[in-house]
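Structure record:
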Amino acid sequence: MSARTLRVVQAGLMPYGEALAWQRALAEARIAGQLEHDVLLLLEHPAVVTLGRAAHPAHVLRPDGVDVFEVERGGDVTFHGPGQLVGYPIIDLGAHRRDLHWYLRTLEQALITALAELGLPAERSAGYTGVWVGGHKIASIGVHVRQWVTWHGFALNVTTDLRDFERIVPCGIAGVVMTSLEREGAARGMETRGLWDDAVRAVIAGFETAFGVTAWSAPDSGTPFDPALSATPS
C-alpha cells in the first residue's frame, strides 16, 4: 500500500496513561514493520500535567488534583484537559524526510492550515515551537522520535477551560497567554456550535495538505495495538 496513507483514529476521552501506552505500542509496531502505514490518534484527556525532557519542576505551580506524568517528549510542561484536541501522529519519517526540524515545522503548518480553514489567521513565533493567534498561544507541540518513527504530538485548544493553564508556566514560557478556538472565534463573531467536529475535520485536512498524505478513518479499537489498524484501506 502507499506510504502516503494516514489512518486517523478518533478515540474520544481517554486517560493520559492509556493513551501513552497506546501510542508507544503503535510506534513499536511501526518500527518493527508490523504496522504498514502511519496513524494519527485524535482524542482528549481528563485534566493532566505532563513534563517533557526539558521541564523545570518550578514550572508546575499548582499540581493539586491532577495526575502529573514525566515523559520522553521534548519540551517543558504542558496541560491537557477536556475541550482540547490532542493529536498523536505515529509517522515513519523515512517515508517523508528524516529531519526533525522539518517534522516540527510541518506539524505547525498542518495546524496553521487547519486554523485558516476555520477562519483564524495563525502563525509561528520566532524561537518557539507551536502555533499562535494574535500573539496568544493556541497549540503546543512536543514530540519524540526513535529510528525515525514519531510519537507524542500536539495539543490544540478548542473549548479548553483556559484557567487550567494557571496550574503551570505553559511550555516554560514566562508570560505566555493561552487562547482557544472558542475564545478567538467568539471575539470574531464566529459560530461556535459544532466547533469540535469542525476542528477535527480541519486538522485532518491540514495533515493531508502539509504532509502530502491521504487520510482515512478507523474506529477506535479500544486496545493499545490492534492488527486491524495495519489493514489496507478498502
